[in-house]
Amino acid sequence: MSHEVTEVKATAAESGEKATERFIENHGANLETPKERVSQLATEVLTAVHDLIRRHKVTYDEYQAVKGWLIQVGEDGEWPLFMDVWVEHVVEEVATDHREGSKGSIEGPYYVPGSPKLAAACTLPMREDEPGTPLLFQGQVTDVSGHALPGAKIELWHADDFGFYSQYAPGLPEWNLRGTIITDDNGHFEINTIQPAPYQIPTDGSCGRLIEAAGWHAWRPAHLHLKVSSPGHELLTAQLYFQGDEHLEDDIATAVKPELIIAPSPKADGTGNEVSYNFTLDPLGI
Ligand code: MBD
Ligand code: FE
């Protein structure tokens, strides 16, 4: 019995369509942005494109090829993927540059709100014979003065041992490897999960076509996604990566920071790996 049989790789169009639907559900209300700002930003984007066309003498064939590609990105539902892989990291950088607490990283396209609530010491929802190296992930959530934050919420989601995310690849239980953990009276958590595999973004859609046409690769290093929150504190959206991963230096999404690399070590009882990592949350709005 192999999971490779039931766990078919999602097509770009399948996972793209889900990511697009989910995005519209979560961010349906459009932001009211002042006209002056819309005009300034839109003008600067367009001017940058015009300048590039002049500098590189972009041809009509190239213009039509890009136009066709942009149309196809939408048809594949790959705008969430495109934006989060190639743009979000700079938005995250700007949004968090004042922080004193833990470093964060991009959310990416595969977050799902409302995952099952779990106690501080828990096992993430997973299949009975979930493949992969078991990982005990423990630590504490504190504020920037080092005070424990009991009852803090840690939303954790990650890919399985084949690099697939539940709700975006067929054949996986709805909440597989997704959970919302509440820290104990000392702000501690102790989560049993498995180590995810490196993740290759879909290669059969428009983003894949760009990657191939440009001679890039489609890999992200293996990663855990987290949202850590506590009333009165800034939401921390982060990812954790694994020391030794071959894609730490060339993440297609440019979302690795040295502070986010963990180095699990084998547990004494031989049942997998363990690692400690603490989160420090900035106070809200100063
Ligand atoms: C991912 O799993 C991810 O985290 C990002 C940022 C983009 C594509 C897939
Ligand atoms: Fe991811």
Automatic annotation (TrEMBL):
InterPro entries: 1_2-CTD_multi_dom (IPR043029), Catechol_dOase_N (IPR007535), Cchol_dOase_actb (IPR012800), Intradiol_dOase_C (IPR000627), Intradiol_dOase_core (IPR015889), Intradiol_RC_Dioxygenase (IPR050770). The keyword Protein biosynthesis does not apply. Keywords: Dioxygenase, Iron, Metal-binding, Oxidoreductase. The keyword Acetylation does not apply. Residues 1-20 are annotated as: Disordered. Residues 137-165 form the Intradiol ring-cleavage dioxygenases domain. SUPFAM superfamilies: Aromatic compound dioxygenase. Its cofactor is Fe(3+). Belongs to the intradiol ring-cleavage dioxygenase family. This is Catechol 1,2-dioxygenase. The lineage of its organism: Bacteria, Bacillati, Actinomycetota, Actinomycetes, Micrococcales.
